[in-house]
Protein backbone atom coordinates (compact mmCIF):
# COMPACT_ATOMS: atom_id res chain seq x y z
CA UNK A 1 0.00 0.00 0.00
CA UNK A 2 1.34 3.44 -0.96
CA UNK A 3 2.35 5.84 1.78
CA UNK A 4 -0.19 8.37 0.45
CA UNK A 5 -2.97 5.79 0.69
CA UNK A 6 -1.99 4.93 4.26
CA UNK A 7 -1.95 8.65 5.12
CA UNK A 8 -5.46 9.22 3.81
CA UNK A 9 -6.74 6.14 5.64
CA UNK A 10 -5.50 7.82 8.82
CA UNK A 11 -7.64 10.86 7.93
CA UNK A 12 -10.68 8.67 7.22
CA UNK A 13 -10.30 6.97 10.61
CA UNK A 14 -10.15 10.31 12.43
CA UNK A 15 -13.22 11.64 10.61
CA UNK A 16 -15.09 8.45 11.42
CA UNK A 17 -14.47 8.98 15.15
CA UNK A 18 -15.75 12.57 14.91
CA UNK A 19 -19.10 11.89 13.21
CA UNK A 20 -21.20 12.85 16.22
CA UNK A 21 -19.39 16.18 16.59
CA UNK A 22 -19.72 16.91 12.88
CA UNK A 23 -23.46 16.20 12.97
CA UNK A 24 -24.05 18.43 15.99
CA UNK A 25 -22.02 21.23 14.39
CA UNK A 26 -24.38 21.27 11.41
CA UNK A 27 -27.44 21.02 13.65
CA UNK A 28 -26.26 24.08 15.58
CA UNK A 29 -26.07 26.12 12.37
CA UNK A 30 -29.45 24.93 11.07
CA UNK A 31 -31.17 25.85 14.34
CA UNK A 32 -30.11 29.47 13.82
CA UNK A 33 -32.39 31.00 11.14
CA UNK A 34 -30.58 33.30 8.71
CA UNK A 35 -33.14 34.44 6.14
CA UNK A 36 -31.58 37.40 4.33
CA UNK A 37 -34.76 38.18 2.37
CA UNK A 38 -36.67 38.67 5.64
CA UNK A 39 -33.85 40.14 7.77
CA UNK A 40 -34.30 37.25 10.19
CA UNK A 41 -31.38 36.00 12.26
CA UNK A 42 -28.64 36.76 9.73
CA UNK A 43 -26.35 38.73 12.04
CA UNK A 44 -26.80 36.14 14.79
CA UNK A 45 -25.82 33.41 12.34
CA UNK A 46 -22.72 35.34 11.24
CA UNK A 47 -21.59 35.61 14.86
CA UNK A 48 -22.33 31.93 15.51
CA UNK A 49 -20.35 30.87 12.43
CA UNK A 50 -17.43 33.09 13.41
CA UNK A 51 -17.37 31.50 16.86
CA UNK A 52 -17.43 27.99 15.39
CA UNK A 53 -14.55 28.87 13.06
CA UNK A 54 -12.47 30.29 15.91
CA UNK A 55 -13.12 27.13 17.93
CA UNK A 56 -11.81 25.16 14.94
CA UNK A 57 -8.46 26.95 15.14
CA UNK A 58 -9.17 29.40 12.31
CA UNK A 59 -8.17 33.06 12.68
CA UNK A 60 -11.59 34.63 12.08
CA UNK A 61 -13.27 38.04 11.94
CA UNK A 62 -16.53 39.49 10.66
CA UNK A 63 -16.07 42.28 8.12
CA UNK A 64 -18.70 44.88 7.29
CA UNK A 65 -20.30 45.35 3.88
CA UNK A 66 -23.14 47.65 2.86
CA UNK A 67 -25.41 44.77 3.86
CA UNK A 68 -24.78 41.69 5.96
CA UNK A 69 -21.21 40.98 7.10
CA UNK A 70 -18.68 38.68 5.51
CA UNK A 71 -17.24 36.06 7.85
CA UNK A 72 -13.57 35.86 6.91
CA UNK A 73 -11.08 33.30 8.22
CA UNK A 74 -7.58 32.12 7.46
CA UNK A 75 -4.98 29.54 8.45
CA UNK A 76 -1.62 30.65 7.06
CA UNK A 77 1.93 29.37 7.39
CA UNK A 78 5.00 31.11 5.92
CA UNK A 79 6.35 27.83 4.49
CA UNK A 80 3.22 27.22 2.38
CA UNK A 81 3.32 28.38 -1.22
CA UNK A 82 -0.26 27.67 -2.34
CA UNK A 83 -3.51 29.22 -1.07
CA UNK A 84 -7.11 28.06 -1.52
CA UNK A 85 -10.00 30.45 -0.92
CA UNK A 86 -13.11 28.59 0.25
CA UNK A 87 -16.35 30.41 -0.57
CA UNK A 88 -19.85 29.78 0.81
CA UNK A 89 -22.93 31.57 2.12
CA UNK A 90 -24.56 31.35 5.53
CA UNK A 91 -27.91 32.91 4.55
CA UNK A 92 -30.85 30.72 3.53
CA UNK A 93 -34.08 30.94 1.57
CA UNK A 94 -37.41 31.63 3.33
CA UNK A 95 -38.97 28.31 4.44
CA UNK A 96 -42.49 29.10 3.18
CA UNK A 97 -44.87 27.44 2.47
CA UNK A 98 -44.55 26.04 5.99
CA UNK A 99 -47.49 23.67 5.62
CA UNK A 100 -45.56 21.61 3.08
CA UNK A 101 -42.73 20.81 5.51
CA UNK A 102 -42.87 17.45 7.28
CA UNK A 103 -40.94 18.93 10.23
CA UNK A 104 -39.86 22.30 11.65
CA UNK A 105 -37.49 23.77 9.01
CA UNK A 106 -35.18 25.10 11.74
CA UNK A 107 -35.11 21.98 13.88
CA UNK A 108 -32.94 19.42 12.08
CA UNK A 109 -34.62 16.04 11.71
CA UNK A 110 -33.13 12.76 10.47
CA UNK A 111 -35.23 10.47 8.33
CA UNK A 112 -34.17 7.71 5.91
CA UNK A 113 -30.52 8.68 6.05
CA UNK A 114 -31.12 12.37 5.38
CA UNK A 115 -30.93 15.52 7.52
CA UNK A 116 -33.96 17.73 6.93
CA UNK A 117 -33.95 21.48 7.59
CA UNK A 118 -33.59 24.81 5.85
CA UNK A 119 -29.97 25.34 4.86
CA UNK A 120 -28.85 21.72 5.21
CA UNK A 121 -27.52 21.61 1.66
CA UNK A 122 -27.84 25.26 0.68
CA UNK A 123 -25.37 26.12 2.01
CA UNK A 124 -24.69 25.48 5.71
CA UNK A 125 -23.92 21.78 5.41
CA UNK A 126 -21.48 22.41 2.58
CA UNK A 127 -19.66 25.44 3.99
CA UNK A 128 -19.24 23.97 7.49
CA UNK A 129 -17.66 20.91 5.82
CA UNK A 130 -14.64 23.10 4.99
CA UNK A 131 -14.38 24.38 8.57
CA UNK A 132 -14.62 20.90 10.08
CA UNK A 133 -12.10 19.49 7.59
CA UNK A 134 -9.56 22.15 8.58
CA UNK A 135 -10.19 21.48 12.27
CA UNK A 136 -9.64 17.74 11.82
CA UNK A 137 -6.41 18.24 9.86
CA UNK A 138 -5.08 20.74 12.40
CA UNK A 139 -5.89 18.32 15.21
CA UNK A 140 -4.18 15.49 13.35
CA UNK A 141 -1.06 17.25 12.02
CA UNK A 142 -0.78 20.57 13.88
CA UNK A 143 -0.51 22.49 10.58
CA UNK A 144 -1.79 22.45 7.00
CA UNK A 145 0.34 21.81 3.90
CA UNK A 146 -1.31 24.77 2.12
CA UNK A 147 -2.77 28.10 3.21
CA UNK A 148 -6.54 28.33 3.42
CA UNK A 149 -8.84 31.34 3.49
CA UNK A 150 -12.60 31.46 4.01
CA UNK A 151 -15.07 33.92 2.52
CA UNK A 152 -18.60 33.27 3.80
CA UNK A 153 -21.21 35.86 2.85
CA UNK A 154 -24.75 36.49 4.10
CA UNK A 155 -26.48 37.72 0.95
CA UNK A 156 -26.14 35.02 -1.71
CA UNK A 157 -29.87 34.33 -1.58
CA UNK A 158 -30.41 38.04 -2.37
CA UNK A 159 -28.09 37.95 -5.36
CA UNK A 160 -24.78 38.67 -3.55
CA UNK A 161 -25.52 42.36 -4.00
CA UNK A 162 -22.57 43.57 -1.90
CA UNK A 163 -20.03 40.85 -2.63
CA UNK A 164 -18.37 42.36 -5.72
CA UNK A 165 -17.51 45.69 -4.05
CA UNK A 166 -16.26 43.82 -0.98
CA UNK A 167 -13.96 41.66 -3.11
CA UNK A 168 -12.84 44.70 -5.12
CA UNK A 169 -11.86 46.48 -1.90
CA UNK A 170 -10.12 43.45 -0.35
CA UNK A 171 -8.05 41.97 -3.18
CA UNK A 172 -4.90 41.61 -1.11
CA UNK A 173 -6.72 40.00 1.81
CA UNK A 174 -8.43 37.50 -0.52
CA UNK A 175 -5.41 36.75 -2.73
CA UNK A 176 -5.28 33.03 -3.54
CA UNK A 177 -4.39 30.52 -6.23
CA UNK A 178 -7.93 29.19 -6.66
CA UNK A 179 -11.44 29.70 -5.30
CA UNK A 180 -13.19 26.51 -4.15
CA UNK A 181 -16.96 26.39 -3.58
CA UNK A 182 -19.08 23.52 -2.30
CA UNK A 183 -22.67 24.29 -3.31
CA UNK A 184 -25.55 22.75 -5.21
CA UNK A 185 -26.36 19.09 -5.79
CA UNK A 186 -24.13 16.44 -7.32
CA UNK A 187 -24.87 15.50 -10.90
CA UNK A 188 -26.47 12.18 -10.04
CA UNK A 189 -27.04 9.67 -7.24
CA UNK A 190 -23.67 8.82 -5.68
CA UNK A 191 -22.02 10.67 -8.57
CA UNK A 192 -19.38 13.21 -7.46
CA UNK A 193 -19.12 16.28 -9.66
CA UNK A 194 -16.83 19.20 -10.37
CA UNK A 195 -18.08 22.32 -12.17
CA UNK A 196 -15.75 24.84 -13.80
CA UNK A 197 -18.07 27.82 -14.04
CA UNK A 198 -21.68 28.88 -13.89
CA UNK A 199 -24.27 30.67 -15.93
CA UNK A 200 -25.03 34.28 -15.12
CA UNK A 201 -28.43 35.77 -14.36
CA UNK A 202 -30.62 38.68 -15.37
CA UNK A 203 -33.89 39.03 -13.46
CA UNK A 204 -36.50 41.59 -14.53
CA UNK A 205 -40.14 42.42 -13.86
CA UNK A 206 -42.49 43.83 -16.48
CA UNK A 207 -45.64 45.64 -15.35
CA UNK A 208 -48.55 46.64 -17.56
CA UNK A 209 -51.17 49.15 -16.46
CA UNK A 210 -54.49 49.35 -18.29
CA UNK A 211 -57.50 51.22 -16.93
CA UNK A 212 -57.33 52.54 -13.37
CA UNK A 213 -59.77 49.81 -12.26
CA UNK A 214 -60.99 46.37 -13.34
CA UNK A 215 -63.80 46.45 -15.89
CA UNK A 216 -66.70 44.16 -16.82
CA UNK A 217 -65.47 41.94 -19.67
CA UNK A 218 -68.83 42.21 -21.45
CA UNK A 219 -69.77 45.84 -20.92
CA UNK A 220 -66.25 47.09 -21.66
CA UNK A 221 -64.93 44.24 -23.84
CA UNK A 222 -62.99 45.50 -26.90
CA UNK A 223 -62.93 48.94 -25.26
CA UNK A 224 -60.78 48.73 -22.11
CA UNK A 225 -57.16 47.57 -22.70
CA UNK A 226 -56.16 44.18 -21.32
CA UNK A 227 -52.69 44.50 -19.73
CA UNK A 228 -52.32 40.72 -19.33
CA UNK A 229 -52.83 40.22 -23.05
CA UNK A 230 -50.42 43.08 -23.76
CA UNK A 231 -47.70 41.40 -21.70
CA UNK A 232 -48.30 38.09 -23.47
CA UNK A 233 -48.00 39.81 -26.84
CA UNK A 234 -44.82 41.60 -25.70
CA UNK A 235 -43.21 38.37 -24.50
CA UNK A 236 -43.95 36.76 -27.88
CA UNK A 237 -41.81 39.48 -29.49
CA UNK A 238 -38.99 38.66 -27.06
CA UNK A 239 -38.81 34.88 -27.49
CA UNK A 240 -40.11 32.53 -30.19
CA UNK A 241 -42.03 29.25 -29.57
CA UNK A 242 -38.78 27.25 -29.75
CA UNK A 243 -37.13 29.32 -27.02
CA UNK A 244 -34.91 31.44 -29.28
CA UNK A 245 -34.52 34.89 -27.73
CA UNK A 246 -35.37 37.71 -30.17
CA UNK A 247 -33.91 40.63 -28.21
CA UNK A 248 -31.29 42.56 -30.19
CA UNK A 249 -27.71 41.24 -29.87
CA UNK A 250 -28.74 38.72 -27.19
CA UNK A 251 -26.41 36.00 -28.51
CA UNK A 252 -23.58 38.22 -29.78
CA UNK A 253 -21.07 37.88 -26.94
CA UNK A 254 -21.45 34.21 -26.02
CA UNK A 255 -18.07 32.52 -25.62
CA UNK A 256 -17.66 29.80 -28.22
CA UNK A 257 -17.02 26.41 -26.55
CA UNK A 258 -13.60 24.93 -27.25
CA UNK A 259 -13.23 21.64 -29.07
CA UNK A 260 -11.96 20.16 -25.78
CA UNK A 261 -15.14 21.26 -23.99
CA UNK A 262 -17.42 19.85 -26.70
CA UNK A 263 -15.54 16.54 -26.81
CA UNK A 264 -15.75 16.38 -23.01
CA UNK A 265 -19.51 17.01 -23.02
CA UNK A 266 -20.02 14.19 -25.51
CA UNK A 267 -18.21 11.83 -23.14
CA UNK A 268 -20.31 12.65 -20.05
CA UNK A 269 -22.64 9.99 -18.64
CA UNK A 270 -26.36 10.73 -18.91
CA UNK A 271 -29.33 8.80 -17.58
CA UNK A 272 -32.50 10.38 -19.07
CA UNK A 273 -34.86 8.39 -16.83
CA UNK A 274 -33.07 9.31 -13.59
CA UNK A 275 -32.78 12.94 -14.68
CA UNK A 276 -36.48 13.09 -15.54
CA UNK A 277 -37.31 11.61 -12.13
CA UNK A 278 -35.28 14.30 -10.31
CA UNK A 279 -37.07 17.04 -12.27
CA UNK A 280 -40.49 15.48 -11.70
CA UNK A 281 -41.19 14.48 -15.30
CA UNK A 282 -41.97 11.17 -16.95
CA UNK A 283 -39.27 11.45 -19.61
CA UNK A 284 -36.71 13.77 -21.24
CA UNK A 285 -36.40 13.69 -24.99
CA UNK A 286 -32.77 14.81 -25.16
CA UNK A 287 -29.47 13.16 -25.96
CA UNK A 288 -26.55 13.57 -23.57
CA UNK A 289 -24.92 16.16 -25.84
CA UNK A 290 -28.15 18.16 -26.18
CA UNK A 291 -28.79 18.01 -22.43
CA UNK A 292 -25.36 19.27 -21.38
CA UNK A 293 -25.20 21.94 -24.10
CA UNK A 294 -28.56 23.31 -22.97
CA UNK A 295 -27.62 23.08 -19.29
CA UNK A 296 -24.04 24.34 -19.33
CA UNK A 297 -23.38 26.37 -22.46
CA UNK A 298 -26.64 27.98 -23.55
CA UNK A 299 -28.67 30.91 -22.17
CA UNK A 300 -32.33 30.67 -21.14
CA UNK A 301 -35.42 32.90 -21.14
CA UNK A 302 -37.83 31.84 -18.40
CA UNK A 303 -41.15 33.14 -17.07
CA UNK A 304 -40.73 32.76 -13.32
CA UNK A 305 -44.15 34.18 -12.41
CA UNK A 306 -47.18 35.79 -14.05
CA UNK A 307 -49.97 37.57 -12.19
CA UNK A 308 -53.13 39.32 -13.33
CA UNK A 309 -56.87 39.40 -12.79
CA UNK A 310 -58.95 36.80 -10.99
CA UNK A 311 -57.47 33.35 -10.30
CA UNK A 312 -59.80 32.11 -7.54
CA UNK A 313 -62.51 29.46 -7.67
CA UNK A 314 -65.31 29.78 -10.19
CA UNK A 315 -65.70 32.69 -12.58
CA UNK A 316 -65.30 36.43 -12.42
CA UNK A 317 -65.72 38.12 -15.79
CA UNK A 318 -63.36 41.08 -15.70
CA UNK A 319 -60.78 42.90 -17.75
CA UNK A 320 -57.95 43.27 -15.23
CA UNK A 321 -56.52 46.72 -14.69
CA UNK A 322 -52.92 45.56 -14.29
CA UNK A 323 -50.59 42.64 -14.89
CA UNK A 324 -46.99 41.76 -14.14
CA UNK A 325 -44.54 39.08 -15.16
CA UNK A 326 -41.20 38.11 -13.62
CA UNK A 327 -38.60 36.87 -16.10
CA UNK A 328 -35.21 35.34 -15.40
CA UNK A 329 -32.54 34.76 -17.99
CA UNK A 330 -29.59 32.46 -17.31
CA UNK A 331 -26.63 33.79 -19.26
CA UNK A 332 -23.84 31.87 -20.97
CA UNK A 333 -20.15 32.72 -20.64
CA UNK A 334 -19.26 36.32 -21.62
CA UNK A 335 -22.85 37.58 -21.81
CA UNK A 336 -23.27 40.89 -19.96
CA UNK A 337 -26.49 41.26 -17.91
CA UNK A 338 -26.27 45.07 -17.91
CA UNK A 339 -25.93 45.30 -21.69
CA UNK A 340 -28.79 42.85 -22.23
CA UNK A 341 -30.97 44.84 -19.83
CA UNK A 342 -30.38 48.02 -21.85
CA UNK A 343 -31.36 46.19 -25.03
CA UNK A 344 -34.54 44.96 -23.33
CA UNK A 345 -35.41 48.56 -22.37
CA UNK A 346 -35.09 49.54 -26.04
CA UNK A 347 -37.14 46.50 -27.08
CA UNK A 348 -40.00 47.42 -24.75
CA UNK A 349 -39.90 51.05 -25.91
CA UNK A 350 -40.60 49.99 -29.49
CA UNK A 351 -43.49 47.70 -28.52
CA UNK A 352 -46.82 49.39 -29.24
CA UNK A 353 -49.43 48.59 -26.61
CA UNK A 354 -52.61 50.26 -25.32
CA UNK A 355 -51.31 49.63 -21.79
CA UNK A 356 -48.44 51.44 -20.10
CA UNK A 357 -45.58 48.96 -19.69
CA UNK A 358 -42.70 49.55 -17.27
CA UNK A 359 -39.62 47.45 -16.60
CA UNK A 360 -37.73 46.92 -13.33
CA UNK A 361 -34.24 45.48 -12.92
CA UNK A 362 -34.36 43.00 -10.02
CA UNK A 363 -30.86 41.59 -10.23
CA UNK A 364 -27.96 40.57 -12.41
CA UNK A 365 -24.91 38.32 -12.04
CA UNK A 366 -22.17 37.80 -14.61
CA UNK A 367 -21.31 34.26 -15.76
CA UNK A 368 -17.89 32.71 -15.17
CA UNK A 369 -15.73 30.02 -16.76
CA UNK A 370 -12.46 28.36 -15.73
CA UNK A 371 -10.33 26.30 -18.18
CA UNK A 372 -10.32 22.57 -17.54
CA UNK A 373 -6.65 22.01 -18.39
CA UNK A 374 -5.16 24.01 -15.50
CA UNK A 375 -2.89 21.93 -13.28
CA UNK A 376 -4.52 23.11 -10.04
CA UNK A 377 -7.96 22.21 -11.44
CA UNK A 378 -6.76 18.73 -12.38
CA UNK A 379 -5.36 18.26 -8.87
CA UNK A 380 -8.71 19.04 -7.26
CA UNK A 381 -10.49 16.70 -9.68
CA UNK A 382 -8.03 14.00 -8.60
CA UNK A 383 -8.66 14.83 -4.91
CA UNK A 384 -12.42 14.35 -5.42
CA UNK A 385 -11.69 10.99 -7.03
CA UNK A 386 -9.46 9.96 -4.10
CA UNK A 387 -12.15 10.88 -1.58
CA UNK A 388 -15.01 9.08 -3.35
CA UNK A 389 -13.04 6.24 -4.94
CA UNK A 390 -14.84 7.26 -8.11
CA UNK A 391 -14.05 9.60 -10.98
CA UNK A 392 -16.19 12.77 -10.79
CA UNK A 393 -18.28 14.08 -13.64
CA UNK A 394 -16.64 17.35 -14.73
CA UNK A 395 -18.98 20.00 -16.19
CA UNK A 396 -17.73 23.12 -18.01
CA UNK A 397 -20.43 25.20 -16.29
CA UNK A 398 -23.18 24.92 -13.72
CA UNK A 399 -26.72 25.39 -14.98
CA UNK A 400 -27.50 27.65 -12.04
CA UNK A 401 -25.94 30.93 -10.99
CA UNK A 402 -23.43 31.89 -8.34
CA UNK A 403 -21.17 34.89 -7.82
CA UNK A 404 -18.05 33.12 -9.07
CA UNK A 405 -17.27 35.97 -11.48
CA UNK A 406 -15.92 37.91 -8.47
CA UNK A 407 -13.07 35.38 -8.41
CA UNK A 408 -12.45 34.99 -12.15
CA UNK A 409 -13.05 38.64 -13.13
CA UNK A 410 -11.98 40.62 -10.03
CA UNK A 411 -9.40 38.44 -8.25
CA UNK A 412 -8.28 36.95 -11.60
CA UNK A 413 -8.00 33.43 -10.21
CA UNK A 414 -9.59 30.16 -11.38
CA UNK A 415 -12.77 29.07 -9.65
CA UNK A 416 -14.50 25.72 -9.39
CA UNK A 417 -17.45 24.21 -7.56
CA UNK A 418 -17.51 20.75 -5.99
CA UNK A 419 -21.11 20.00 -4.95
CA UNK A 420 -21.36 17.93 -1.78
CA UNK A 421 -25.18 17.66 -1.53
CA UNK A 422 -27.27 14.80 -2.88
CA UNK A 423 -28.97 15.25 -6.25
CA UNK A 424 -32.43 15.41 -4.61
CA UNK A 425 -31.54 17.94 -1.88
CA UNK A 426 -34.63 20.08 -2.70
CA UNK A 427 -32.77 23.30 -2.02
CA UNK A 428 -35.11 26.34 -2.00
CA UNK A 429 -38.09 24.01 -1.55
CA UNK A 430 -39.93 22.59 1.47
CA UNK A 431 -38.19 19.59 3.04
CA UNK A 432 -34.72 20.66 1.98
CA UNK A 433 -32.29 17.93 2.97
CA UNK A 434 -28.75 16.65 2.83
CA UNK A 435 -27.82 13.01 3.03
CA UNK A 436 -25.77 12.07 6.09
CA UNK A 437 -23.39 10.14 3.84
CA UNK A 438 -23.03 13.10 1.48
CA UNK A 439 -22.42 15.53 4.34
CA UNK A 440 -19.69 13.39 5.90
CA UNK A 441 -18.16 12.70 2.47
CA UNK A 442 -18.03 16.46 1.93
CA UNK A 443 -15.80 16.92 4.97
CA UNK A 444 -13.59 14.11 3.71
CA UNK A 445 -13.42 15.65 0.22
CA UNK A 446 -12.21 18.99 1.57
CA UNK A 447 -9.53 17.11 3.55
CA UNK A 448 -8.49 15.31 0.37
CA UNK A 449 -8.30 18.57 -1.59
CA UNK A 450 -6.11 20.25 1.03
CA UNK A 451 -3.79 17.27 1.38
CA UNK A 452 -3.51 16.56 -2.36
CA UNK A 453 -2.84 20.20 -3.22
CA UNK A 454 -0.20 20.12 -0.47
CA UNK A 455 1.24 16.93 -2.03
CA UNK A 456 0.59 14.93 1.14
CA UNK A 457 -1.56 12.28 -0.58
From TrEMBL:
Superkingdom of the source species: Bacteria
Q: Where is the Peptidase M20 dimerisation domain?
A: 197-352
InterPro entries, from UniProt? Cyt/Met_Dipeptidase, Peptidase_M20, Peptidase_M20_dimer
GO:BP terms for this protein?
proteolysis
Keyword Membrane: yes or no? Answer: no
Alphabetic keyword roster: Hydrolase, Metal-binding, Protease
- Can you name one GO molecular function term for this protein? peptidase activity
Q: What protein name does the entry list? A: Acetylornithine deacetylase/Succinyl-diaminopimelate desuccinylase and related deacylases
